[in-house]
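A reminder from the course coordinator: this example appears on the midterm review sheet, so study it carefully.

Given structure:
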């Protein structure tokens, strides 16, 4: 497996890393087999999140013995200094380690939210303090909005940026990836298969690595997936002409109905959290993480069926998604 330095950090990460979402859906023993396979294939970068239920715990249990030769990365949604302090302590316990290589502020959605984490008593304060204490080594940010990730990169305060980049969501290559390169901010590619929409996995990974992402982190829950994805990291080559045709066809197929979670459609006058509902639909339908999706849907006051089809969001979505129709369709499928 080829390795690359992740931005300005000292981490030499395998170009194919391990995304920790789907591992939530398998039993501990099976997770152990999947992690073992990942290690055998040369994967040394493992990414999880406090929000991924038992993903950190499974990583901790399976990777404790090889801690010194891997990099652990995780993230938390807390935006306050005190809240993030608790999250870091929990991550350390779950991951069975006394340091975490990369800790990220998870899913910063707006520039206001970014300002809030930098404010006094904001989460960034804790990242810096935890680094001084040796509990974390490098500081990262994750998100779905290009303006937020660009703002985070330009702040000069983060070592890495994690965002969704794939042949369908390729707008990131215009400004964000070049800005990250210029600032030596490491780029971590989440959702390399567009949340399950892209079927040609090897071609997608080759595409993303060829377009400047430092590391791709496909979510995996089976040894065969690890083998397939890891094979791309043995020899870096761009996708072939045939693969590019395939990927373009995927983009055309999903282009009209693929939510990038940019949030421009918000606010909805009826109180629907449109990007989050789209995310839940994606997890339910494409990832088949149905229990996980339903548990999150249960936390929302306004669900798919509450869309009044007022059309306000339609003019705000830069991708022209037929949002009211998608809400109606999801309301029928997800019950
Ligand atoms: S529906 Fe459109 S505007 Fe709203 S988050 Fe998705 S892509 Fe962005
Ligand atoms: S069409 Fe539905 S989702 Fe869109 S703004 Fe109106 S109520 Fe909200």
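Designed residues:
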């Amino acid at each position: 497996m080829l390795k690359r330095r992740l931005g300005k950090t000292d981490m030499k990460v395998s170009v194919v890393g391990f995304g920790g979402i789907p591992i939530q859906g398998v039993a501990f023993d099976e997770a152990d087999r999947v992690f073992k396979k990942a290690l055998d294939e040369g994967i040394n970068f493992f990414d999880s999140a406090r929000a991924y239920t038992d993903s950190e715990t499974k990583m901790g249990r399976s990777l404790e013995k090889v801690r010194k030769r891997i990099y652990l990365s995780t993230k938390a949604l807390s935006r306050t200094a005190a809240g993030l302090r608790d999250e870091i302590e929990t991550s350390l316990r779950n991951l069975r380690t006394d340091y975490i290589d990369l800790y990220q502020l998870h899913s910063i959605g707006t520039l206001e939210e970014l300002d809030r984490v930098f404010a006094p008593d904001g989460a960034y304060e804790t990242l810096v303090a935890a680094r001084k204490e040796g509990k974390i080594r490098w500081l990262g940010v994750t998100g779905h909005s290009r303006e937020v990730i660009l703002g985070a990169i330009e702040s000069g305060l983060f070592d890495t940026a994690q965002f969704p980049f794939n042949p369908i969501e390729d707008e990131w290559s215009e400004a964000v990836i070049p800005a990250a390169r210029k600032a030596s901010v490491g780029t971590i590619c989440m959702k390399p298969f567009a949340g399950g929409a892209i079927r040609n996995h090897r071609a997608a990974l080759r595409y993303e690595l060829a377009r400047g992402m430092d590391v791709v982190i496909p979510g995996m829950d089976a040894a065969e997936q690890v083998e397939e994805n890891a094979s791309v990291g043995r020899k870096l080559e761009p996708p072939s002409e045939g693969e590019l045709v395939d990927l373009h066809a995927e983009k055309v197929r999903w282009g009209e109905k693929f939510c990038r979670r940019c949030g421009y459609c918000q606010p909805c006058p009826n109180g629907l959290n449109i990007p989050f509902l789209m995310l839940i639909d994606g997890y339910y339908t494409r990832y088949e993480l149905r229990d996980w999706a339903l548990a999150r849907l249960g936390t929302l006051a306004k669900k798919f069926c509450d869309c009044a089809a007022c059309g306000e969001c339609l003019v705000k979505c830069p991708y022209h998604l037929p949002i009211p129709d998608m809400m109606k369709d999801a309301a029928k499928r997800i019950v």
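The chain is about 40% helix and 15% strand. The chain has a mean pLDDT of 95.
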